[in-house]
Amino acid sequence: MKYATLGEIMLRLSTPGAQRFVQAKSFDVCYGGGEANVAVSLCNYGEEAALITKIPDNDIGQACVNSLREFGVDTSKILRGGKRLGIYFLETGYSMRPSQVVYDRADSAIAQAKPEEFDFKKLLADVQWLHISGITPALSENSAKITLEALKAAKELGITTSFDLNFRAKLWTKEQAQAAMIPMMKFVDYVIGNEEDAQNCLGFQMDGDVTSGKLDVAKYEIMLAELCKKYGFKGAATSLRESHSATWNGWSTALSINGKFYHSKHYDINPIVDRVGGGDSFSAGLIYGLTHFDDPQQAVEFSAAASALKQTIPGDTNHVTVKEVLKLASGDASGRVQR
Amino acid sequence: MKYATLGEIMLRLSTPGAQRFVQAKSFDVCYGGGEANVAVSLCNYGEEAALITKIPDNDIGQACVNSLREFGVDTSKILRGGKRLGIYFLETGYSMRPSQVVYDRADSAIAQAKPEEFDFKKLLADVQWLHISGITPALSENSAKITLEALKAAKELGITTSFDLNFRAKLWTKEQAQAAMIPMMKFVDYVIGNEEDAQNCLGFQMDGDVTSGKLDVAKYEIMLAELCKKYGFKGAATSLRESHSATWNGWSTALSINGKFYHSKHYDINPIVDRVGGGDSFSAGLIYGLTHFDDPQQAVEFSAAASALKQTIPGDTNHVTVKEVLKLASGDASGRVQR
Amino acid sequence: MKYATLGEIMLRLSTPGAQRFVQAKSFDVCYGGGEANVAVSLCNYGEEAALITKIPDNDIGQACVNSLREFGVDTSKILRGGKRLGIYFLETGYSMRPSQVVYDRADSAIAQAKPEEFDFKKLLADVQWLHISGITPALSENSAKITLEALKAAKELGITTSFDLNFRAKLWTKEQAQAAMIPMMKFVDYVIGNEEDAQNCLGFQMDGDVTSGKLDVAKYEIMLAELCKKYGFKGAATSLRESHSATWNGWSTALSINGKFYHSKHYDINPIVDRVGGGDSFSAGLIYGLTHFDDPQQAVEFSAAASALKQTIPGDTNHVTVKEVLKLASGDASGRVQR
Amino acid sequence: MKYATLGEIMLRLSTPGAQRFVQAKSFDVCYGGGEANVAVSLCNYGEEAALITKIPDNDIGQACVNSLREFGVDTSKILRGGKRLGIYFLETGYSMRPSQVVYDRADSAIAQAKPEEFDFKKLLADVQWLHISGITPALSENSAKITLEALKAAKELGITTSFDLNFRAKLWTKEQAQAAMIPMMKFVDYVIGNEEDAQNCLGFQMDGDVTSGKLDVAKYEIMLAELCKKYGFKGAATSLRESHSATWNGWSTALSINGKFYHSKHYDINPIVDRVGGGDSFSAGLIYGLTHFDDPQQAVEFSAAASALKQTIPGDTNHVTVKEVLKLASGDASGRVQR
Amino acid sequence: MKYATLGEIMLRLSTPGAQRFVQAKSFDVCYGGGEANVAVSLCNYGEEAALITKIPDNDIGQACVNSLREFGVDTSKILRGGKRLGIYFLETGYSMRPSQVVYDRADSAIAQAKPEEFDFKKLLADVQWLHISGITPALSENSAKITLEALKAAKELGITTSFDLNFRAKLWTKEQAQAAMIPMMKFVDYVIGNEEDAQNCLGFQMDGDVTSGKLDVAKYEIMLAELCKKYGFKGAATSLRESHSATWNGWSTALSINGKFYHSKHYDINPIVDRVGGGDSFSAGLIYGLTHFDDPQQAVEFSAAASALKQTIPGDTNHVTVKEVLKLASGDASGRVQR
Amino acid sequence: MKYATLGEIMLRLSTPGAQRFVQAKSFDVCYGGGEANVAVSLCNYGEEAALITKIPDNDIGQACVNSLREFGVDTSKILRGGKRLGIYFLETGYSMRPSQVVYDRADSAIAQAKPEEFDFKKLLADVQWLHISGITPALSENSAKITLEALKAAKELGITTSFDLNFRAKLWTKEQAQAAMIPMMKFVDYVIGNEEDAQNCLGFQMDGDVTSGKLDVAKYEIMLAELCKKYGFKGAATSLRESHSATWNGWSTALSINGKFYHSKHYDINPIVDRVGGGDSFSAGLIYGLTHFDDPQQAVEFSAAASALKQTIPGDTNHVTVKEVLKLASGDASGRVQR
Predict the structure, then answer these.
(1) Per residue in B177-212, pLDDT tens?
(2) What are the helix (H) ranges across chain E?
(3) Nearest CB to A271: which of C22, C94, C170?
(4) What CATH number is associated with residue A111?
(5) Do B309 and A97 touch (CB under 8 A)?
(6) What is the DSSP pairing of strand C79-80 with strand A190-192?
(7) What is the per-residue pLDDT across C256-313, written as a single tens digit (0 to 9) for each?
(8) Domains held by chain F: number
(9) Which residues contact residue A275 at a Cβ distance below 8 angstroms, ignoring those fewer than 6 apart?
(10) In a domain, F328, yes or no
(11) Against a cut of 0.95, is the pTM above it?
């Protein structure tokens, strides 16, 4: 089975240690983006995965491509060209000080790419699963068109699709998001998103204060079931994050499929090393789980353990093996030295 | 409104990561000291603040001056000369291993400065608030004289004064401290200090075991009220720290003003990134609060949130904006990524 | 009193920060091994201690020797020669992600050393205590012979001996371990080991799930008493670790001596900075305690505080002074800044 | 005397050590740009200097402002706002491998600023010298207008002006440059530029192969004299660089003033630490020289020594004192330890 | 055209900066080996290249594989298994202090691999050029057999072969080398080696003191011609290095082909950043040149410029593009900033 | 043979890379001082050497002691106590930018030590050679007394003495130096010093401009011979440094002994990595040479090669082996990789 993802990959510049932006005399460099992170995760599980995007034909772009190749991502479907690689600056939070992100992603190569540059029939010819997040259509009007065309092509080719709603208020309004994304849902097999995403991207409503640190699982069960019902998804999934502080979160994941609700065991992630990419690693874990386990509970447990582990690893991407995820999913969270 | 602070700024040399002194092959460099830290904090809130001190006229001294200018501190009132910049070595603690400080500050330029070098009428001419800590008079007999003269001049000029008692057993005895500091109190509007400071600097007594991790707030209420009564302070304030370990502290602040007691909400700081400068950031937050909010509770909440945030930031100084402090003071300690 | 330890010291290559192996572009370098770590600890307590081992006569070997001399270890009993220094790669875990160790220690100089290279009568002539761990006989058949000869020589010379069972499944099977180690026990005065070590190395059985995070102290009391009875040890000791996560452990130590059981106070180590060498620092603390305190409870408290502190320090070795250990053992775990 | 400069300041991201872009896992951070570099240099000489520019009102922008304040630059004339701070990536060359620059500066705050945002009468009210480089008008059509308005206002206010031609082929064509810059020249007192700049920006021609490593000084004498004659400049200056390799350059500077030609002594800079900002430090040295020395030869020697020293210092900006420049200008290039 | 290379890739651990081994507290990490370096170079030229080797199936091995994938090397022909990855420690020299290499490569996975593990008919099926160096047969008797089988298979498949003699005195004697390598030569199309290699590996003699810093090109012309004649090589090539110091070398390359001698222009590499891999980058440049240029002089110039550039780049591998090599080969060694 | 040296060891804080003081956000840490450097060098040659000094009894002092033990220096003769360890700040120069040293060494433990604290009869009982530099008596009046007493005791014990004049203008005037040092000369066997030292410390005159980069060897021959004659030294030696720039020096050494003059071969050190400690490594090389070679030419060559190598190594101390020095002294300065 081969997977493809479509979206932006950015240069990430993060302050070392616990430094604030105004203290930094160097930035740590990595490359990441929602769909790229999913592709890297899948490759780390031993799968074949390709990223479809556009990256400028300069040295910074080449370094970005290399970072994907390093982990085995198929980069042959990447267009080279455009003006710049999008950038985001990250300052990692501690205790009650939140992480800060400063975006400098406007006019990136992929945001300015045109629909006619992508021949999805060809790009998806050797692929069985396509994954996109809601960030891709939010980049530009062209990006929204490209996203829709990719999803349509996938359905024509009989490819399974998953879509992580991932609303980003800095990129568009919820009105814009809904106008663009609701029409896409009919081409989506599996949707991923929490209550805020569902509300902003699809107009869904759900009670519950996510900043309180306490979550009502039952409400998520209802939300996911209703999403499936309304849009005809094969499945709908969400992570359940309790944000106690920047360095301590509760974490679990849930899936509604075939009318049943599956909720993973609960993890207390403390300390969090890097929570960026946590959601993407959940998507990747879920996709892997759905394509490798018959029991949905196993898929959910895999997705939860995978994404909990991600948050103990620096960088956007999740560097864990299937064996490591299964070990944690099987209950060993003791952290004893492996030697 | 313009603020001035008077005191020593030192070169801080700290071991990287969790290294002990005997392991260090490099030291991280920053510059800090009680009053300098207050000035930097105020500048980060968008205020004008100057540091009055003496710094040697060599490259290390220049780097120190630059570090103040970087954050907007007015360095035009700094004398240049003397033999050396004071130094302190810092080893940051973890869990039950405490942080260690090795002082090498004897004979610093400011400790050896003479009273006649400072023309406070002129230095304070454009200032409305003067802040000093008890470290300044402890540096030398001359420093004690300079401190007293500064306070007197402030009063003559109608400047509001605040004084952070800050007893340092390595610099003088409590007998010496009391002899020097009690006479200064009549020139002080706002005093800051915990039970140990009050006892050592002013001869005050208060029960309660600060190493137990449990604090009796009522005793602080009494202490602060009595301090105001005895010395005629407009206000008296303290932080309430519960030291669970080197990396986990409980934290709140309290103020007694106009016969009323105000206690901030409680913060659990875990992990602490750098607790040095926590008290100074409390002083700066309180000064800002007293000069910007009508409600003393708001001032206290601002001071508590500001100083809690400081302890999540490496270095002596507090790099947070008013907006960030208000956000935490308003109750959002979830640490969710700001993007 | 002078101590000697016999065993392998390796080059340790660890990933910086929280990086995984596949992310590392540099490795932090230190040198460590069970018995070397004990020798360094003892020297840090102001004692004289020597390491007996074999180290290759090249620059990497010299750097290793220097690292021992740096902390005062007597390196005059070290043989120089052989093909290579053993290496281990370390990736430090966080939260539920465990630390990983990759060994590359086969064919090291000490593993390939021959019994006739060591004249223990001479090597131990100025020594009153000999400490070895179960790793040493596990290295090779020759190493097992060398271990036995060292223990025999020690007994002939009237030297006290301690033995840390320390089973390593990657080096041998439990059958091999028992065949080699049981005959050694008659030359051992003090044995150290937890329930797994006792089971694997000596064939002992004990119930209790060490991954559950809850420990039944009573079972340890029985185990240690029975060990003493069966093998005629003067004392038997163990650490009691509750592994909540890679960065949070409960910790205490226990000793059975003269028919009585002594259990230290309990420490919550959170965050753990580096748990490697925790057991070795316990051995060193216990050896120091047994030779410096009349009260076994004091010895146990010393060993527990020492080894809890170790886990807050990066590297294999424990850089704490007697004064620091006593301060923690006396109850001050508040982590307040020492200044 | 107070100086102002007008232009863009960018975030500079450079690879550490001798790494190529594709090897970098971190970037060193500093902030620089032609006119900002001149302002920092002048402040390091103890002068007052302000930068006029526009910087975004986010944390990266604040870090940029702080970097200017650190060295004493007056930042009160800086507008805050706009979308982004321009970025340039730098890979430092060695031997025959040239340094590489990747620009990502489009749509920066200053490039998108509008002429009406700048009230030059007010901005230049306290200033006696204005310096601009040819990069500023090249940023955008608005920037060209802003440049022209600044120069006009300066002349109306009786302010001396200097202009560093600084042609950048990546920003505009020589036709565009000439159309914009030639009309500006009548407001310029002192022009700075080498033969390529004169040709591209003003349509001047001069023979000589600058890549050959050999320069014909006589031709520069003619060029500078003709520039003065044609445009009525008070003076015209240039650096004379012989590029032997990325790490070894010959260096001198020359000035034509009052009909006379002054050529500095020659420096062999080997190794070059960082040649970026070499030209700007020459401008700053020349401006300082012209305003502090009666003898033009002294001014030229100062400019040459200052800019030679810059190339031994990492970063865009020149951190040398007047005393250090004079020492080198006076002939001591022995590099003996100052102690 | 697709290339394959066969040989060992090692973990390289180098001291940072100019540190000696006994000073290092960290090692920089990269992965390299003669044949791997050739494969990376070719991929950086936009070609397809695969490495055939055996790498252990652990995290260190995976990091090694990733380092190859990062630069586009086809890693699908790599066997996974065996005990360990070979290691070499590198201390970079300066001035008259030479670089030091400490090998720890015995018993590596590839050295212990058996001939029957490699099915060269299959491994080379999609390949048109095979490159091996003399290090591969030196690793072990099995490695020598594997090398011979690879060469035979290549000839049977009509694949062009190149062989870099590369004598390593630490791996075998010249007698052993000659016994193994002379029989291989009949399967070799292009041989690469200097006078020492020719002497040690093939029993050739040539006068000239390579430590003198002066080389007699005419002797190389004769040597290469005679090598071609004696072994029937299509071509024979060598680099001509003048070792003035660890950081300053003269450098050129030469090729004898079709009875004619081609000598590249001469480069003065000063400073050398990293000379390790210089020879491999010459091989890669020559292979690229021979397969892309009709004129042998062009091929030689390409190989010389490529390998000169390599020595300005840290690490084993050469990260330059065809465009960059051609620019230097065309004569621009001025090192002027590319912007 | 066992050596002792007497003098101050300081904490050295140097800026990383080519940074200036005002740019540094961290300092590299090492420990050094003239006599300590000599002791470390001798230990690196496999000799026994002790440092006699006084070091404060705090963590920074302990780190300093450890740095000596690391390289095998006997630290048992070191007194512990006093207020502080002297510090010096170092900024390494490049090209025409000189290295800068900022001293902060006043009131160090050794400078404040009293003569009665040192029982030289006992301290020197196991020693055959005593080495001191002119820095030691310059530290304080007490230090001068201690120096004299040490020299006297050495002579009474029949110990050979060497004295490196080493004039430091920041510590005393030449009048003070001569008053203190001339009376010491009668206890000195071997004197080391260049023309400036001889002039400042002993009132000697010699022509020649040391900043010119050209040296007149004949004048040195005369100077050394006259020094021997006037003071009855067994030998007098000097280094001959031609300072072309901060990173390029010519270097040789010379010795006058038994009426004959020996001059080493000449080295071109380019690039210099760290010239601090160059003179000390010359002293150590000379002492080693005089005690191990019969031929004075060999001793001189050893001293020259040793001290040339030092300048290619970061830090104060010389980490080279006898084998490495002999290899360079024998003429191989080609810097070819040792593998």
Answers:
(1) 999 999 999 999 999 999 999 999 999 876 655 444
(2) 34-44, 59-70, 120-123, 135-138, 141-156, 174-181, 195-202, 217-231, 278-292, 296-310, 322-329
(3) C94
(4) 3.40.1190.20
(5) yes
(6) unpaired
(7) 999 999 999 999 999 999 999 999 999 999 999 999 999 999 999 999 999 999 999 9
(8) 1
(9) A99, A249, A311, B337
(10) no
(11) yes
